[in-house]
Amino acid sequence: MSLQYRKNREKVSRYLMGAKELREGTPATGAGALGGEILRAMEPYMVFDYMGIRMDSNAAQNFNAKINFNILGDVNYLITITSGVVLYQRHMSASDADVTITVPKQAMLLLLSPDTKENENISIEGDTIVLDRMLGYMVEFNPNFAIIEP
């Protein structure tokens, strides 16, 4: 498939989606931004990317933290939050991390829940206030946004 064909196909797709939205309105996608099946299928790095998307970087602009994630059955990750921006590094950990979280790979999604500290599958060592602050900066977004008109 040629590059020109792909570019034209993308333009046509955007045009058709915009026309459909203008005629029928914004489609309802359900209750959450992502369905449970999609979230359960996410790899750890995808969960961290999703955390970065959900982070309200304006509200968290003065929030800086280092968090070690030890994922049982996988590898370690170092999450660095600087001025509300979430960065992660695989196979890394920091001795000066604010908090260290040990979690089974299957329970990664529990990290996005406000009940993280009460879950028996998650082990937390260090300053739990940092974890509370991080979760406090996570926002729920409306997946039913208009593509063409704001």
Strand order of the largest sheet: 3-2-1-4-5
Which architecture of the largest domain does the CATH hierarchy give at level 2?
Answer: 2-Layer Sandwich
Largest sheet: 5 strands, mixed
> What distance lies between the first and last C-alpha atoms, to the nearest angstrom?
34 Å
Beta-strand residue percentage: 15-25%
Structural class: alpha+beta
According to DSSP, the number of beta strands is 5
According to CATH, the homologous superfamily of the largest domain is: SCP2 sterol-binding domain
Q: Could you estimate the helical fraction of the residues in percent?
A: 25-40%
Number of helices: 4
Radius of gyration: 19 Å
Q: Helix and strand string, N-terminal first?
A: HHHEEEEEH
CATH topology of the largest domain: Nonspecific Lipid-transfer Protein, Chain A
Q: Name the shape in a single word.
A: elongated
